[in-house]
Amino acid sequence: MDSIQERLYPSLPCFGCGHANPNGLRLRSYPGDDGVVTASFKPWPEHDNGLGFLNGGIICTVLDCHSAAAVMLEADRQGWKPLGDAALSYVTAGLDVHYLRPSPLHEAVELRASVREASEPQMTVDVQLIWDGKVRAEASALWKRWRPRI
User: Fold this and answer.
1) Which residues pair with 53 in a beta bridge?
2) Lower CB density within 10 Å: C or N end of the chain?
3) Which residue ranges does the record assign to the Thioesterase domain (predicted)?
């Protein structure tokens, strides 16, 4: 089964979720029956925070880009297609990240995202990074409808 990213925006060059970026993370997120979008992410040795754990900037990136999958899936379900020649229907307008526990550098972590509020102008997504059954980081992501300016 193709991931949300591969199905809805396969040519996007985004560092976190773009499959057209050969040097990127290439997240693969999947819809669940319970409305939760899930993914697994295996950090690279280069993602070290200097103390042997996953770097906070990489955590922020995967939370942002995984929330994108939930947003783009909801937009697709609602028929809110990209406007003009835009590659995506929505862009990140805010990301409130909370780091709760260290995240491992050498083991895969689980990502979970669910759309809390959805309207055509904006969406809010709750997203978590989990390892060993514990939430390591969480965020609330605000996404706004991308409207090309002329």
Assistant:
1) 104
2) C
3) 52-129
